[in-house]
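Issue 218. Parser rejects a valid record. Input:
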Amino acid sequence: MCVIVRCAGTAVLTIRASDKLFVGVARRKRPIHFTTRSQRTADSCGGGTLTHTESTMTQAKTRSAPGAKDAIAILTEDHKKVKKMFMDFEKLMNSENKEVQKGTLVKKICEELTLHTQVEEEIFYPAVRGAIDDDELMDEADVEHDGAKELIAQLEDMEPGDDHYDAKVTVLGENVDHHVKEEQDEMFPKAKKAKLDLAALGTQMLERKQELQAGDDASTAKKNARAA
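Output the parser choked on:
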């Protein structure tokens, strides 16, 4: 049996009932929508909107481009990058008169973690949650993200030399280490076993990262222009 989806001004899409395209959303009791990955857009078929989270869950089983870097490889690279930053901060803690370098480094740490967590929450986590039978694991990951965001928000309002500044960076690093270990030891193996198209997810994640980075660059440019 085939389902024909027609949207005004768009091509006709035929889906066989036997296809496993939407395995990752079996538990979401809502109609399937089709839209761009890049941002929340109006659904041309019904006038609704589709978030990055919903779009990802409907695309978790799509065919990936040959040679694409998969989602787990991208996240693992992020983990290594941030870990090195925390190690660099630890070295600065033991040095004299390094306040400026510490502030610059912590700013980068906060930016990297914010970008990483947003892409995970919009794209990777929904796809994995829909494909594995472990809501407890995914819920814990969400809560750990919330804890990291709270510390990041505090650090963004602080300056090196403020009371508990170094301690908060250290605790953030310890929390991130714990979170990374759970992801790499538990979540990633389950995602692989679920046979998600990790390369397709990786493509979506890279595209979203570029969008977010472009938005941050534009925002920074506007602030600098106003300051001038």
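Fixed in the parser; the record now loads. The longest strand covers residues 2-5.
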